[in-house]
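Weekly structure sync, notes
Attendees: PL (lead), two postdocs, one rotation student
Agenda item 3: pending single-chain targets
PL asked that the sequence for the first pending target be pasted directly into the notes so everyone works from the same version. It is reproduced below exactly as submitted, 212 residues in total.
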Amino acid sequence: MSAISMASCGEKNPSPSQPAPRQPVHALTIVALGDSLTEGYGVEEHQAYPALLEAKLRKEGFSCTVINAGISGETSSGLLYRINRVLSLKPDIVILCTGANDGLLGIDFQLIEINISRMFRTFKEHQVTVVLAGMKMLVNYDPSCTESYARLYPEIADQEQILFIPFFLEGIAGKPELNLADGIHPNAKGYQIITASVYPHVLKAIHQRKSQ
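Predicted structure, written out during the meeting:
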């Protein structure tokens, strides 16, 4: 039962000895943005991290809805293109995990930076709190290319002052037991680890909004 429902139920004129009705609580909308890593390629919807995150937040007493807005195969340009559709969901917080497919396709890193910065500034204009998830190359490339890609996300986070998850696949990448047969996409156990990793950063976003 929602807090709004509870506030409207009961006697119209409660006696002084009864506690005051609870005030309506704003339920936060969190939108998980990204590609197949967010969507949950190869696992059931309830096993992907957005569903697990919502369940964990509610278990801890937070009134939150987490919307899975991941699209397999999407690049950062594709996500920027649909940003108005994301805003129509009225998010309070977005978890932004994008750029992995850009890296796989060899797209210029500067374009990834431009796209993420544009998305962040658009969300900021609409009073949406952003949590940026960092990525690393998922396949072996030239070391200088891999290092440049790895530096990209912390540099954007520092420049734009974004809440930052250093590496979305921390503790999962390269571990066969936590990934599907392709070695790239997490399995159900892998998503449990991702949820635990993402959770404290989302808590920071929630507390940041409360302090505004």
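Discussion points:
- Confidence is low (pLDDT under 50) at residues 1-24.
- The chain has one domain: 25-210.
Action: rotation student to compare against the earlier draft before next sync.
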